[in-house]
Each structure stands twice: as C-alpha cells, then as structure tokens.
UniProtKB/TrEMBL annotation:
One of the record's GO cellular component terms: mitochondrial crista junction
Known role: Component of the MICOS complex, a large protein complex of the mitochondrial inner membrane that plays crucial roles in the maintenance of crista junctions, inner membrane architecture, and formation of contact sites to the outer membrane.
Natural source organism: Candida parapsilosis (Yeast)
Pfam family, one: AIM5
Keywords associated with the record: Membrane, Mitochondrion, Mitochondrion inner membrane, Signal, Transmembrane, Transmembrane helix
Subunit and interaction comment: Component of the mitochondrial contact site and cristae organizing system (MICOS) complex.
Name by which UniProt lists this protein: MICOS complex subunit MIC12
Length: 122
C-alpha cells in the first residue's frame, strides 16, 4: 500500500513540476514576444512613419556636476595623475625636429667661435 501512495505522490509531483515549468516557459516567451512587438511598433511609428524621435531628442546636460572624493588620498592621486598627463602631453607637443635643428645650429655657432678664437691666437 505504501508503494502505491509513494508512486502516486511522485507522479503528482512530477506532473505538477512539468506543468509549472511549462507555464513559466510560456510566460517568458510571452514577455519576450511582447517586448519585441512593442519595440517594433515603436520603430514603425516613431522612426519610419514620422520623425518624432528626432524632434523630441533631449539636449545633453553640459554642466559640470560636483564630485565628492572618497578620501584625501584619492584626491592626491588624482592631482598626481593630472600632472603626469600634463607632462606627457607637453613632451608629445615638442617638435623634436625643430629642436634638433636649433641645437645643431647653436652648437655650430659655438664651435665656430671657439675655432676662430684659437686661430686668432696664433
């Protein structure tokens, strides 16, 4: 008698679990299809048939908002990183060719003066 009851309860459990998960699958599929239908409706009505989406675009907020730092150490790190970035940008901004030409001409002028002073002493 106990085997029949256990078998019956096992069958009820299995059937109810399959029914529950099937209903959940239907529900998820319904939500997925509904969401895509709404998106398609929005695309057709707002982008294809009219230009209301382009007329109703919000302007971006260009104002700087106040940031609160986590700690004093983080503020110091940010200042240090900003200075490093400024230094690297300054180094990248140097025209190395022009600097080399200028140093070469100055070195030539200096060596010419030294050579003239040595030749004039003899």
């Amino acid at each position: 008698m106990g085997g029949r009851i256990h078998g019956f309860l096992g069958g009820v459990l299995l059937t109810s679990a399959l029914t529950y998960y099937t209903a959940q699958t239907f529900h998820h599929n319904q939500q997925f299809i509904s969401q895509h239908l709404q998106q398609s409706n929005n695309i057709i009505n707002n982008r294809i048939l009219t230009d209301s989406e382009y007329r109703n675009t919000a302007l971006p907020n260009n104002h700087i908002t106040l940031k609160q730092r986590v700690s004093f150490g983080e503020t110091c790190k940010d200042i240090w990183n900003d200075e490093i970035i400024k230094m690297v940008n300054w180094i990248y901004g140097i025209n190395w060719y022009k600097l080399g030409v200028k140093l070469d001409s100055e070195a030539n002028k200096l060596t010419d003066k030294i050579a003239e002073s040595l030749v004039n002493k003899k």
